[in-house]
Amino acid sequence: MSSRIKVLQLQARYNVNASDLAEQIIQGLPAERFEVTTAFLRGRPGSGEPESRAPRSIYFGFSQSDLKGLRLRALWRLYRLCREERYEVVIAHRFKPINMLMLLNPWLRIPACIGVQHGIGDFDRAYRRWEARRLLAGNWRLVGVSRAVRDYLLGCGAGFDSGNTVQINNAIDIERAEGLQHSREKARAMLGLATEPFTFGAIGRLVPVKGHIHLIEAFAKLQADYPQAQLAIIGEGRSRADLESAIERHALQGRVHLLGAREDALQYVRAFDAFVMPSLSEGLPLALLEGMSGRLPVVGSDIDSLRPILEDCGGRVFPVGDAEALAEQLRAILRLDTEQRNEEGERAYAYLRSAHAIEDFRRQYHQLVEQALGAEQASS
Description:
This protein is of the alpha/beta class.
């Protein structure tokens, strides 16, 4: 029996959780054929925190300053690891790991290099585009995690084209999500929400880029016509004080609920009657997919990473940061009867099943790795 193919999955920082798509890539690579090591440039699990499902994990423990500027120490240690282990495939997530691997690969000559780009904007700088064009070789494949990210890569002028760049949609484990989700009544009881009122819901860290302030401003415009409606936000962060001030300013106490951080927040999705994602920027909108898994109508801003998904699933879109336009979309949902809202939620769920199922995600990464290895063998 031939030895297994050695794969290194390289990530910027430790962040292993139940929704971690890097872990799903590992699961998509059959253990009888692939030997996977996962490595994190920064961070490591604390006591009781989950570890990667890969047989071996490496925590470089670099500081933030180690990964700035020339990064010579970090590059040297990564070079030594790859040289000693002779990986045949490296899957690098996000700009810094991709860039480090690009810089090292002329000497390492790894047969198949796959860069997974999770967001938009990393190649806006002219120097980064020039460097990518100079370093990009035939053994590289780039993955955009959505149509918007793929289109950005193809159009940014960094040398990425239809021959080396593919789209593999981000995904969630729908069966797991549905298995975790509580009924509407139980979820509301667990969150301390009243059973009766129509409730808009959002999930995300309380930081400015998530746009919650615009959601609260929009919701405030509904209070005269829909005094019973409520808004619930699951998440915690540095914007809490600003959001609390907005709630007080609009006299929305008791109608807008900041519920704090919750483990596996998707288990509470069915507490909501509609799901809202007002982000100003978003790379991997998993929370939106989790909202769809609850068969809810979905509303989101028209940023590049959300708009294609919302358009394809029959969701509702508003201009980013426009509280008045968002309020109109919320009103439109409130005007629907129960049957119409259910139909809208079912359309979103059907789209989720067709475009973002975790089984397809795993299969596509497996195929990409096999194709990359096959192309390299054919050229050698």
